[in-house]
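Could you please consider the sequence and fold appended to this message?
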Amino acid sequence: MKKTIILLILTIALFSSFSSCKKKEEISTIPLPATPAFTIGTQWGVITSHFLRLRKNPDSKARILTHLRKGTLVEIMTKSTKREKIEGQDSYWYQINYNGLKGWIFGGYLKEFNSKNAALEYAKELK
């Protein structure tokens, strides 16, 4: 029994001495290019239709989440990659954030702005 304990202690001591001699890994950094999320500012929009449907997906048959009134200020998150023609208007679908509710609206009924202040001024004129 004593020989087993001594052998176990020696094995642990030998293992720990080898593991402490391991070469430490160097930490390297990789430079990354700027991404559009950090270089492009927030886009804003104002609804120009009297009663616009906010939809779950960019499709005129998608489920309606709510309705937005003319002059409503929205934050533009992204837009679809292809244009579509609806009611004679040719535009993209825009994914927007309206008071925390995210959905899609057709861009034929949206006026875009680069600043929130400019969008707010335009919204005041519409109401």
